[in-house]
Design brief:
The protein is about 45% helix and about 25% strand. By secondary structure, it is α/β, with parallel strands linked by helices. Strands 5-2-1-6-7-12-11-8-9-10 form a 10-stranded mixed sheet, sandwiched between helices. A two-stranded antiparallel sheet has the order 3-4. Helix 1 (about 20-35) runs parallel beside helix 3 (about 75-100), helix 1 (about 20-35) packs across helix 6 and helix 4 packs parallel to helix 5.
Length: about 290
């Protein structure tokens, strides 16, 4: 068990579901992680009340592509579609969880997606979100509201873009700050879980990128990281990274062979554009730790 000063423990994972291909890919990744760190999964399907209200307006219309034909939105049809998507999402969660022997639950709520996501996230340790998620129905998108909620919620977030391959290694950006200590604890916990689950393949790799504005500063951070790892009896490769921006961090991830990238959610180098850059450039899932 990891015993860093402020330990990061994943016991409950929340995943937003909408029955789309990418949403179900996020589900598979969430279940795989839950199995490896011995957590439980909660699937959440939000019936968007704003969409329902829109459909009740007499002027609301649906534009069909590529035909360009317009027709009036039908609230009854939309509600029926939502129920069908929710049933499909629940079944997918049940199958995936039972296959991996992961405890699970599933809820359908009606409300504003962002509000409901944020409320549910308070009860979770980790929120899983795929930024490539496709439309909830032909009328609306889940990802924009869910992404906003996940970013604002006081919980850690696992960001994906499409279905990642099996994660065999963990890479953490560490600058010695309080937030970086939490990120290191999270990376250590996930790496330990990967090692337990993949014993036949050997222990999962843990790489610590020691960040600093100068070579001397990066050296001090590396020394601190090695001391922290030694205290906990953890093995990891530690590399210095000077004046790291998104491009330099992406390059370092590639050099480390890829894997799960773990970052302090409050890190200065992490802005919205930077987060998407990491996902696009590295192709690696990214865990933002709070």
């Amino acid at each position: 068990m990891i015993a860093l000063d402020d330990p990061f423990v994943i016991r409950r994972i929340l995943v937003a579901l909408d029955a789309s291909t990418h949403s179900l890919a996020a589900l598979e990744a969430a279940v795989e992680l839950a199995e490896r760190v011995e957590a439980e999964i909660e699937g959440l399907f939000v019936e968007d009340i704003n969409l329902m209200r829109l459909a009740q307006l007499p002027i609301a219309q649906q534009l069909s592509l590529p035909s360009g034909l317009r027709r009036r939105l039908d609230a009854a049809v939309i509600e029926q579609e939502m129920r069908a998507f929710a049933a499909e999402a629940r079944q997918a969660l049940e199958v995936a969880a039972e296959r991996t022997n992961v405890q699970w639950s599933f809820r359908v709520v009606r409300g504003q997606v962002e509000v409901e996501m944020r409320a549910a996230a308070v009860e979770a340790d980790l929120v899983v979100l795929d930024l490539a998620s496709r439309p909830l129905t032909q009328y609306a998108r889940l990802v924009s509201a869910a992404e906003s909620a996940a970013r604002l919620a006081p919980r850690s977030v696992l960001l994906l873009r499409g279905r990642p391959g099996p994660v065999e290694a963990v890479i953490v950006a560490y600058d010695g700050s309080e937030g970086a200590e939490k990120a290191l604890a999270a990376a250590a916990q996930v790496a330990a879980g990967l090692a337990r689950a993949g014993a036949a393949r050997g222990a999962a790799n843990l790489t610590v990128l020691a960040l600093g504005p100068t070579q001397a500063a990066a050296g001090r951070v590396e020394k601190k990281a090695r001391a922290r790892l030694k205290e906990e009896g953890l093995e990891a490769e530690v590399r210095q990274l000077v004046k790291a921006g998104p491009a330099q961090l992406c390059e370092a991830v590639h050099l480390a062979g890829g894997g799960l990238l773990v970052l302090d959610a409050g890190a200065k180098l992490l802005e919205r554009a930077a987060a998407e850059t990491f996902l696009d450039e590295t192709g690696c899932p990214m865990l933002l730790v709070r």
